[in-house]
Amino acid sequence: MAQMKNETAETSSGKGVFLRILSYARPYIKSMLVCFVLVLAVTALNLYRPILIGRAIDGYIEGYARPLACVSPEDADVEFDGLYLSRDENAASDRYAILVYYSENYYFVRDLTAQQAEELSALTGEDLSGASENGGTLTFPSADGRTEFTGRLLDRDELSVLRKGDHDGIIRIGIEYLIVLAVTLLCELSMVWFLQRTGQSIIFDVRQQTFEHLHTLPLRFFDTNPVGRLVTRVSNDVDSLERLFTQVIVKLFSNTVLIIGYAVVMARINFRLALLCFVFLPFIFVLTYIFRTTVRRIYRTIRTKISNLNAFLSENISGVKLIQLFVREKSKADDFKGRTTDLFRSQMKELLAFSLFRPGIAFMANFALATLVYRSGVSVLAGTLTLGTMYVFTNYIRSFFQPIEELAEQFSSLQNALASAEKIFTVLDEENTIKEPDDPYIPEKVEGRIEFRNVWFAYENEDYVLRDVSFVIEPGQKVAFVGATGAGKSSILNLIGRYYDIQKGEILIDGVDIRRYRTSDLRRAIGQVQQDVFVFTGDIKSNIRLLDESITDEQIRLAAHAVNADRFIDQLPGGYDEPVTERGSTLSAGQRQLLSFARTLAYDPRILVMDEATANIDTETEGLIQEALERLMQGRTTIMVAHRLSTIQHADNIIVLHKGRIRESGTHQELLQHNGIYKKLYELQQ
Fold first, then answer.
1. 217 Cβ partners below 8 Å, 6+ apart?
2. Using CA atoms, how far apart are residues 146 and 478, in angstroms rounded to an integer?
């Protein structure tokens, strides 16, 4: 059977793991599509906001330089200085006026031709270097120096009249900007809600599937995998996937759309400036690729070390009594320190990768911004680029590199999620070697006849624990297995419930091979009482019922009464509702054993399997347990394993195992007369 032998091994390619993760989103595809539509809307709105500011700068703040056409009164936007003026670029006129800004003042120049108005609208501060101001009048030459223009200084009220249209335009753009912000906020709130709800639903499904799958795996899997590691899979690793669905996937999509959107818009506004920005992209892509490859390897190592650390913690917390008994606290603390130091070093490697990557991206972004500001500033001074376009570009260049920089964080979460997903899929890919039959045999009633035919069984390879074992147990018989440690007694009990599959031979119940039964039908017919009784956190009642709501409270009380468990339950403050902790530490060994008898009787199995059920029990409690056993075994096929031979003398048949083979069988008296292995064991105990 495949095992998780190498935690650092990659289960599949990164692409394959990512696509497999995405398959969990398939039931929620509508919600995810809504999220992506909202992302597109938010992206478009984010792209539109700088354009609004640029329009306000070029159209209204810097709009004073646009020519004013002299028109008829009905077509005019404003009346000033005896003229009816319009800013409509399509207005037909043979006379124009214009505002000129010089030395922090505005001057009104009138009676211009269309060509002169266009010439003056393109004037820069450098062109006005030869201007002179005298008594509120500005005189300046044309760009070619052939014509001289004169402008009148405007006071604040006059300027307000002429720029009323610009003021109104800025207000309109401000209102539009606020509307865009409000719509963006609404879309982002909706997106977060859909993302969180969908993400939590997906994580619930993954955790549920992982937990359910773990319970379908055979005992062989749990023999080779520490509990702490498996807990890490269901808790820590699944939690690492949460951010993937609630943030990373949508962020990756939105940042990609933003980068493409900024690139397209910048190229359409000014291709040469956009090309200047794109020069830095190859360096960023190379740096990102190196970072992604490095971080994924580091994250995979970190996830492995965390799971190993959790396994260490689980083992040492469970065995704390033994550690204290042998005074090994210091050595265990040193061992833990070594493991945490190893994990610390791996996490420092992760921090080093980020400390190099993020500043590198930020440096390139700032260098690109500085280059753009210089180049566009020169173009603005030369009159080949408007101030509004420069603003849009500087805003876009910051926004253009911001999603690229954010991808670093997203790559971090993505690599973490992929590393965790690999660990989870390692568990989910474990196949249950106990295969269910294609055409199962469903018995109307299990009589309880058990037969082993030439059974060979090994836990590993061909190191056989049972060798050519054959025996028959008739319905209602009480059969005991005895032998030295390692003889194969407990293995027989595990094989009857098909917790392991045999390599050779057959095991039959009521004449039918157990491999033809569904495991649920087979195990429902078998009640197993173990030496080490596991008690779940909850109460007495829930530990008898084990979440089977078909077992009523009355049945629980009857089962407890039948096995004498009610004697201690009724004395508890809460009775059947008395809280119990994990492993039943608040109960004595005898009380836990009686509780397990009540649990088994409540399920009413036809076959009863007991593995050292009376071991480590005091004499007084043993009397109650023996009485309970008599009631429990009544009318049931019973198989017992016991080291104390005094507890099995009443058995109908005793089978003696030695090194995986049956050496003797018979009743207690018959085996004593045989003068074999059983008699030697009996005499040693006597």
1. 430, 432
2. 126
Same domain, 459 and 324: no
Average pLDDT over residues 448-461: 92
Total length of the chain: 686
Cβ atoms within 10 Å of 462's Cβ, excluding its own: 7
Amino acid 640 reads M
Strands 148-153 and 137-141: antiparallel
Question: Both 72 and 44 in a single domain?
Answer: no
What's the CATH number where 184 sits? 1.20.1560.10
Q: Can you tell me the distance from the alpha carbon of 527 to that of 636, in angstroms, rounded to the nearest whole number?
A: 10
**Co-location of 333 and 226 in the same domain:** yes
pTM: 0.68
- Locus of tokens 């009640």: 527
Q: Which of 520-524, 620-624, 644-648, 672-676 has the lowest mean pLDDT?
A: 620-624
CB 471 within 8 A of CB 665: yes
Please give the helix or strand (H or E) that residue 252 lies within, else none: helix 249-269
Domain count, the chain: 3
Distance separating alpha carbons of residues 660 and 470, to the nearest angstrom: 11
The count of other CB atoms within 10 Å of the CB of residue 528 is 20
Q: Do 217 and 351 belong to one domain? A: yes
Give the whole-angstrom CA distance, residue 450 versus residue 457: 17
Greatest Cα pair distance in the chain: 141
Structural domain that includes position 26? 14-56+170-428
pLDDT at 175: 94
Which of 153-162, 391-400, 454-463, 673-682 is the least confident region?
391-400
Between 293 and 671, the higher pLDDT residue? 671
Q: Name the band, by pLDDT with cuts 50, 70 and 90, for residue 8.
A: very low
Q: Which amino acid is at 255?
A: N
| 13 three-state secondary structure | coil
CA distance linking residue 218 with residue 2, whole number of Å = 12
